[in-house]
Amino acid sequence: MPLGTATPQDPRQRERAFLVGFDVRTRSRSGTKAAITAQATAARDASVTSTGGAPKPDARPSIPEFDAEESLAELRTLAESAGAQVVGEILQRRDRPDPATLIGAGKLEEISGAAASVDADVLLFDHDLSPSQQRNIEKIVQRRIIDRTQLILDIFARHARTREGQLQVELAQLQYMMPRLAGHGVEMSQLGGGIGTRGPGETKLETDRRKIARRMRHLQQQIENVRRIRAQQRQRRESAPVATVALVGYTNAGKSTLFNALTNAGVLSSSKMFATLDPTIRAVELPSKRKVLLSDTVGFIRNLPHTLVSAFRATLEEVQRASLILHVSDASSRLSAEQDVQVEIVLKELEAEKKPRLCVMNKLDLLDGEVADGLIADAARAGSNRVYVSSVEGTGLNTLLERMDTMIEEDRISRVKLSVPQSEGKVLALLEARARIFARKYKDGAVQMEVDAPESVVRRVREWLVKSRA
């Protein structure tokens, strides 16, 4: 039963959730996590350097990590986004995970009593559980157990609106579910090629496995059809000189609010995590009057399940093919740098970490006025690769559009002089709509103009170009 649905005993109440946090006392930045973080940080700095805004390495502050309390707070937000009512929580610290129950049998008995005292329906673990750990915990607490990955999948399932999004979420859920089917019996399978394929030795487990595998193949085929259609649509878009700009960032960084502020699209923007799953593309006019396509994408999160990255690859291809990535961060969050590193890890998995990038620090309105002014002044210096904005108040949006204009290579702008006959009304209308006019005067039945125009426009008015004298 999905989280947030009413229980049979009381249909008016949301599902009651008890949160279980887990922290390893000896964890440090050494080891695998440090290596991934270092690679991601290096990739971010390389991207900044490639766009002409390299920061001084010795000036970069250390990146704070999520501590156990902050991780548990994020789990609380995830639970509320899933529609659950949080009725209690507990944090367990150990030197190492317990292989059978993650947190140890003694602590589990304590948690079982605490969950019973608040009449919790489900226990949410801020950690991934192996299938055997999940079964062992359920036997002791006699309640449904959901780990972090399953919770995120549940939120995705609630928020998917389009057929494409629903297909991708269902595939990820089945990939998660397959190894968690209880029991054994693979060796007993009686595989055939037609009638009678279910032999006498086949268990219900094997029937379930086969049904799930068949459904997964069907979903993968449908998603592949989606990818093919998207590729055709992208090919048509790329035949015209229109660049695509992709919004990426940690979940709840304000990407959809920024998307609406730039495009007036009316896309759902919510404080709930993963409010946006289905991609939306809208046109935006830059100060040079060039048009670009802005794409809003699903938010990333720490330890984003690999099955989701794989399932949503059709959607995230917009990021891979974008001319420019706008990396949106929450400027008001203490953990914005750590969240940025998590985004870098996903971008690396998508092989998009070397794309030209502009860092957009959002939610400026939540900062103190003097602090905000100082950050804006600092970002305005030559070579800075950051823009500070408030999507809610509209602060900094014009600066953002100007920076996008200078960084996008497609359909470059050039300054030209023209002498267009006044009888060429369509040409003059084109220049009014698609070019920035700096000077204009009328002489001998012609309009003499000096304009900044995209290459696509210059090609259409080439016969009226005024060649400069040597």
Structure characterization notes:
Among the domains are: 16-29 and 65-146, 3-Layer(aba) Sandwich (Rossmann fold); 240-407, 3-Layer(aba) Sandwich (Rossmann fold), CATH 3.40.50.300; 413-464, Alpha-Beta Plaits, CATH 3.30.70. It is elongated. It has helices at 32-50, 68-81, 105-117, 131-141, 148-159, 163-177, 204-238, 255-263, 306-311, 313-320, 336-349, 369-379, 397-407, 425-434, 455-460, and strands spanning 16-24, 85-94, 122-125, 144-146, 243-249, 280-285, 291-296, 324-330, 357-362, 386-388, 413-421, 436-443, 446-454. The strands form three sheets. Strands 6-7-5-8-9-10 form a six-stranded mixed beta sheet, sandwiched between helices. A four-stranded parallel beta sheet has the order 2-1-3-4, with helices on both faces. The chain has a three-stranded antiparallel beta sheet with strand order 11-13-12. The protein has 470 residues and is of the alpha/beta class.
What is the count of β-strands? Answer: 13
SSE pattern: EHHEHEHEHHHEHEEHHEHEHEHEHEEH
Secondary-structure-based class equals alpha/beta
Give the helix proportion (percent range).
40-55%
Compute the average pLDDT. 80
Distance separating the two termini: 78 Å
Assign the CATH architecture of the domain at 240-407. Answer: 3-Layer(aba) Sandwich
CATH class of the domain at 240-407: Alpha Beta
Uncertain runs are 6-12, 27-37, 46-62, 183-201
Largest sheet: 6 strands, mixed
Physical arrangement of strands within the biggest beta sheet: 6-7-5-8-9-10
**Could you state the CATH homologous superfamily of the domain at 240-407?**
P-loop containing nucleotide triphosphate hydrolases
Individual helix count: 15
> Strand content of the residues, in percent?
15-25%
